[in-house]
Design goal:
Blueprint (H helix, E strand, L loop, with lengths): L1 H15 L1 H12 L6 E9 L6 H10 L3 E8 L4 E7 L8 E7 L6 H11 L4 H5 L15 H10 L1 H9 L5 E5 L9 H10 L19 E5 L4 E6 L2 E6 L2 E7 L13 H7 L9
Parallel strand pairs: 1-4, 5-9
Antiparallel strand pairs: 1-5, 2-3, 3-4, 6-9, 7-8
Helix pairs in contact: 1-2, 6-7
Bound molecules: 2-oxoadipic acid and nickel (II) ion.
The site of nickel (II) ion has 7 residues, from strand 1 and strand 5.
Keywords: Dioxygenase, Iron, Oxidoreductase
Family: Belongs to the 2-oxoadipate dioxygenase/decarboxylase family.
Protein name: 2-oxoadipate dioxygenase/decarboxylase
Length: 267
């Protein structure tokens, strides 16, 4: 069952972000085995659509809640879920924006949109495939949200969708280090997220990650078409702990920088 969910999520993600498919094809051409370490979703902490609501689809597929994370400066909370028995089932990382920690104008702008559709939209178990359910976005509102949170602006436009898939470096033969993967990605013309350094984490911390910068795509706003960042691709290598178990959690310091892969930037 979970394979079907991720197949569909991949199709939606690759359709919107051509570099995702291009990167996957590069590794396939190198005869590498492509294993997906995790995917990530974003949402608001409003009880109609918070982490618990988005997690439902995965709980139904047998997933269980594992780690919890807090990002004070970004006003975010997050969890990750794992499948207890299915080997190679991707982990699922879900974060939510704490709305009460933002200005009144910001909160009003978000709430107006959230209230513009009926609760049934959010309660639908298919919500993870819906993207934005709020109609054509306003570029003025997008920029207003950006002033306080890049995450909120992204979420307002792109909604409920996977914002990245993550290639497991552990499953690779030739590209068996994060340095080799990054070089290969850059040699093929993709830009990396360098916030906090290109490589987040160390072998001692048992997890190293890097990511591309989001694809810039054309989006139709109320005011016209603008080019903004959509989704990115991540690369992760996990190391065994002293008991020989591969580290399976996330690291808040790394994640804090990975979020920034989808920040707005001038083209
Ligand atoms: C999630 C960022 C965190 C990781 O692997 O630490 C993350 C996001 O950008 O929504 O993916
Ligand atoms: Ni990630």
């Amino acid at each position: 069952m979970q394979q079907e969910i991720f197949h569909r999520l991949w199709k939606e993600y690759a359709k919107q972000n051509p570099s995702a498919q291009a990167i996957l094809d590069l590794f396939i051409k190198e005869n590498e085995q492509v294993v997906n370490d995790h995917v990530a979703f974003r949402t608001f902490d409003d009880p109609r659509m918070n982490i618990k609501v988005l997690a439902k689809r995965f709980i139904k597929a047998g997933y269980e809640f594992k780690g919890e994370y807090v990002f004070e400066d970004k006003h975010l909370k997050a969890v990750h879920l794992e499948h207890p028995s299915e080997e190679n089932a991707p982990k699922v990382f879900i974060s939510e924006l704490i709305l009460s920690e933002f200005s009144e104008e910001f909160q009003k702008t978000v709430k107006r949109r959230l209230n513009s559709v009926g609760n049934a939209y959010y309660a639908d178990p298919e919500v993870i495939h819906k993207g934005s359910v709020w109609g054509k976005p306003s570029y003025v509102d997008y920029q207003l949200l950006r002033k306080e949170s890049e995450y909120a602006a992204w979420l307002y436009v792109h909604g409920f969708r996977v914002n990245h898939f993550t290639l497991s470096i552990n499953a690779l033969q030739k590209y068996n280090s994060i340095e080799k993967v990054n070089q290969f990605i850059k040699d093929n013309g993709f830009e990396m997220n360098t916030s906090g350094g290109e490589i987040k984490g160390t072998p001692e911390k048992l997890l190293q990650q890097s990511s591309t910068l989001s694809d810039i795509i054309k989006v139709e706003f109320e005011e016209g078409v603008y080019e903004i960042p959509a989704c990115f691709y991540e690369f992760a290598i996990r190391y065994p702990d002293e008991n020989g178990q591969l580290f399976s959690s996330f690291i808040a310091d790394n994640a804090n920088k990975i979020f920034e892969s989808s920040n707005f930037r001038e083209k």
